[in-house]
Amino acid sequence: MDREPQITADSALIDDASSKGFSQGYEGRNDVPATRSPVMAWNEWDPLEEVIVGSLDGATIPTHHLTVIFNLPRAAQPFYRFASGWKYPKFMKKLAQAELDNFISILAGEGVKVRRPDPVDFSKKFKAPRWTSRGFCVACPRDPYLVIGDEIIESPMCWRSRYFEGDAYRSLFKEYFRAGARWTSAPRPQLTDDLYNYDYRVPNLKAGESMQFTVNEFEPVFDAADFVRCGRDLFVTRSNVTNLMGIEWLRRHLGPGFRIHEIESRCPQPMHIDSSFMPLAPGKVLVNPDYIDVEKLPAVLKKWDVLIAPRPDPVSGFMSKISMCSPWTSINVLALDEKKIVVDQSQPTLIKALKDWGFDPIPAPFLSYGPFGGSFHCATLDVRRRGVLKSYF
């Protein structure tokens, strides 16, 4: 799937422009007027200056659908089946909100400007020509949006309950656009029954069954959280929410100045790369050994330090039992720069490993956020990181 970019001398124009906070187009075109943009991020580790943090306002348990149920841990599935379409209980929101407020305080204390989406009532039912749904929430802005340089890219998500999630970000994105950012949307998906494999069953990969997915190739769909950025190189996993057409759409959209490398997941229910493969700094990537075969990583990573994540420390409590996420959300960390990393305080083994690897972990509680969709990386969308566009390979 990988294609080598045709990088020419003009590429230096991008690197020079991005270092000054300007954009001239991904391929160094000098016929596009340079603009100063409030949005500028090329990777997962440059010093974080501005970030959108998710919100629990209006959070509604997503409408029952195979793309929802088959992406949940088995223990959590009965809760989401039974409570589908209802607002999350107040006690769950209260627990998660306390952790979210603490996280926001940490970011502010590190000098990061925090922005928030607008409140939306996601319990209201909406209709498309061939389906109906209620909404979900805006706890995880990493899923619907990908920031590449000065461009905000809206992803074509396959969960029907997330179809109008973007309404909560409109006022922010209009502000960024007026100030010079680019704002792009992938083709609006129809999300008809033709897209879904309704005969899907979770494959038993240990028994040698072939990989299956809840979505087929009817139309391009992807969650932005299935991609991570390393300058001119992006890494992606095909998953239950990201198909090959979606990956190819982004590859063509970004053009020859970027490479997209596909990483095969061994997770029987793959969804979002940031609990399997997390770049932490130039030359260092954290890998979940249960879901990623290190021997099959793309050749470009041969000179990188592949840090094998320790097995997640066990956690307990009601919120962990109904979490939408696997225990490997432990590696869903947020890098504030090349050293500082926000990590869940329930993971002392990972915290020690990060220290041993030369990082400065910042522990914070966040387990109660799991029922709303993720951890620190999921809960954020980095708007601006202080750095330039580079090739790290």
From TrEMBL:
- What name does UniProt use for this protein? Non-specific serine/threonine protein kinase
**Catalytic EC class:** transferase
Q: Which UniProt keywords apply?
A: Kinase, Serine/threonine-protein kinase, Transferase
The UniProt family comment states:
Belongs to the amidinotransferase family.
Write out the GO MF terms: glycine amidinotransferase activity; protein serine/threonine kinase activity
Q: What is its EC number?
A: 2.7.11.1
Instruction: Return the PANTHER family for the record.
Output: GLYCINE AMIDINOTRANSFERASE, MITOCHONDRIAL (PTHR10488)
One GO biological process term: creatine biosynthetic process
Provide the active-site residues from the annotation. Answer: D223, H272, C378 (amidino-cysteine intermediate)
